Amino acid sequence: MKNTFKDKRLKTLVQILSSTVKKEQKPVKVQATVNEIKYEAVVSTPFEVLQSLKKSNNEIRNIIFAQIRGEISDNLIDPDTLDTHNHHDNKELDQEWRTVSKPHFWHSSAHILGAAVEQVFEDALLTVGPAIKEGFFYDFFSPRDKHVHEGDYEVLNKAIQKIIKDRHRFERHLISKEQALDLFQYNRFKTELIEKKVPKGGKTSIYVLNDFVDLCTGPHVPNTGYVKAFDILKHSSAYWLGDAKNDQLQRIYGISFAEKEQLQEFQRLREEALKRDHRVVGQAQNLFFFNKLAPGSAFFLAHGTKIYNRLVDLMRNEYLKRGYQEVITPNMFHIDLWKISGHYRNYKDNLFMLKTHEHQHDHLLEGENVAHSETYGLKPMNCPGHCLMFKNHTHSYKELPIRFADFGVLHRNEISGALTGLTRVRRFQQDDAHIFCRRDQIEQEVLQCLKFLDHIYGLFGFKWDIFFSTRPDSSMGTDDQWEQAESQLQRALDAYGKPWKLNKGDGAFYGPKIDIIVYDALGRAQQCGTVQLDFQLPIRFNLQYTTSNKDDNSAPIDESQLSSETYLPDEFSPHKFEWKEHPLKAGHERPVIIHRAILGSVERFIAILTEHLAGKWPLWLSPRQVIVCPISQKYLEYGQKVYEELKAEGFEVEIDDSDSSISKKIRNAQLNQFNYILVLGEKEESSEMLAVRKREDQEKTQVVKLKSFIEELKSQYPPGVPLQQRVYNMKQ
After folding, report:
1. Residue 536 a catalytic site member
2. 105, 192, 271, 613: least surrounded by Cβ within 10 Å?
3. pTM of the predicted model, to two decimals?
4. Residue 727 CB: number of other CB atoms within 10 A?
């Protein structure tokens, strides 16, 4: 079926562009290293300016995007849109971008994909096509309910390669809101975006790619020929604006590169990633599984539970050494708790709510008695409960810092489409800790957290980066609080000595934070640990501690300056709730809370570890450390004796007492990733020795005494990792 809207869209575009009043072309000077060139404004783009310098400056050859006053741009150079506060005429193009910016490159590729989709699916109404963490996608609506199939990839790729080969230019135009609505009148999704995002009387930019037109702020590569390698990765369904109540869309994912070799390397790593996928390894090693009757909640089998408990035990051992107090808090709280903490207004959709039957009970949060049906929520985080725990006792400044650690079960009502193996679940546990400290202790506590992180990540061979996120535009707290918090975090980072990167304005609304990105064996970035300062929860819960100053020298309190918040009745709560800030008592101060996680979600960390290690667990973490393989039933008694002694030492040992051949027993053990295989026959039994095969050197066999073997196992436990404990005494 011939596309019914493209011809009309192109005709409308020609009319719009022909009616656009061209701006006066003012001269502008561009300074690039030693060269100064004069260009006409509004007509010239940064790319065209820099292209002329190719012969005299080899550094310019690979530049595709430029920065103008800090903004990545392919826009026309317009003095009216440039910051002129420096009061000079020269406009400098920042050449900081020496390489192609991946997000912009991938967004250009999304436009190529969109143009191909319009060719192949002729009734397709395109919606949005952003760059993502790895590649890009484009969503579209099919009025005929046409679904994408893998068989469509070939024809799509042919259309894409033709668009790339033709080297179509990305042409940017600025049009009015009314013109944009006219141009995209055939597409209700685009017009909805225009109505929402473009103010009345405002303008928006579009990009033209041959006969393809799309809303976009840009920038883009100069032409489609810059994309040398392109691949369609997968397809799926989606919802308009991510809302299941809206129209269902088709989504196509893609990847692209400036060099063919980059795509080949990407495909190699992708194949390796598929082999390492924690869902594949987890099934092969019988670690965990999922069931549709408990979506987003993992069933950990015996071997998976051993890994889970070993990680928790590792953290518990470190807590003993580092002065943490492990606590247990309830799984379920009255919803008023989330109103006090401030989470209810923006987070209630992520809470699992439970309504009780009508009965009389004490309303402990405010000391009132109520008699009606109440709503409770399963906790999605531990911090509000820890605040109640701190508040339950009067604390002196001498007691701080107080470090609460909690492995409590958490629940978050993630949408079903977001659930992905162990990486995105509804039921999980965290190595969650909250440090209540004085302001003068922040720097030292943060420094200790960073050292703690370094120790744990070092055990797994992770490389990791630190990102320091500062005050966002929307935040709570005073300028003085933020300035003090950020300066102390920065001093701690500088004292730690590891390079860090600034994420300006990306802090939490309640305080600045440090985010940790770890890199696995395939170089993939994963967010794990975090260290966050929080000045707001102590205010919300009215947390106070006594100071060394017993005199009341505080200024009179203007209660009109204290914050308050009212929650009206809704479907979960029949009564109005009002939170009010309480002033500090004489001789008291508020603690600062440091939110600290290293593993983060234990479930997600196991997923990351599984793929990082490819299921080859180090001995101290392995659920299958040793397997005893008697050559035949004749040597089973000796094998059982060895098994019992290793078991008594606390090691994870199994015995293969089947009638299988020894070669099959060894092969099965290798597939199950046992760290050690003990082969026992006549020679081993008569000499009371063990024939030992290591996973890392399967062709070599070492003959040792059992006692020496036990010592070798113990020697492989890294410093700081607790050794296996004897389960029982063999002499009993």
Report:
1. no
2. 271
3. 0.81
4. 11
